[in-house]
Amino acid sequence: MAHFAQINENNIVVRINTVDNSDCVDGNGIEQENIGIQFLKSIHGNNTNWKQTSYNSSIRKKYAAIGDRYDEERDAFIGQKPYASWTLDETTCKWEAPTPLPEDYEAFDNPYSWNESTQTWDKVR
To answer: How many CB atoms lie within 10 A of CB 100?
Structure first.
């Protein structure tokens, strides 16, 4: 399955659709984004705007989510800024905290959460 994000006039993702691979391939069996887009426009209308996205983030930096912004200049989907103090990494297009996550971080065994008021990572347990 191919995945596509519908973006509105403000470049905000408003919908994610899947399209069968057979509806995205050219005469040589090669997947083409523009073919998938034309398929979606035939269903949702020619005035809709679509960009392909991928679960493995191989297309446009990250898998698009509703509420993300599509940045035309970077050709990337950018998530919503999680905290006022965080900045966007121009290479990865991911938000980064002003203080790096502690090195002993492990998602389940040693979780941390960001504390915006102190600008630090706090242990959850």
So the answer is: 9
Other CB atoms closer than 10 Å to residue 99's CB: what's the count? 13
| pTM score, whole prediction | 0.84
Are the beta carbons of 104 and 96 closer than 8 angstroms? Answer: no
Helix, strand, coil % over all residues of the chain, rounded to 5:
10, 35, 55
Strands 112-115, 69-71: parallel, antiparallel or unpaired by DSSP? unpaired
**Residues 101-116, mean pLDDT to the nearest whole number:** 80
How many angstroms separate the CA atoms of 84 and 56, rounded? 27
Is residue 93 helix, strand or coil? coil
Taking the CA atoms of residue 53, residue 19, residue 13 and residue 87 in that order, the dihedral angle to the nearest 10 degrees is -20
Q: Distance (Å, rounded) from C-alpha 4 to C-alpha 49?
A: 10
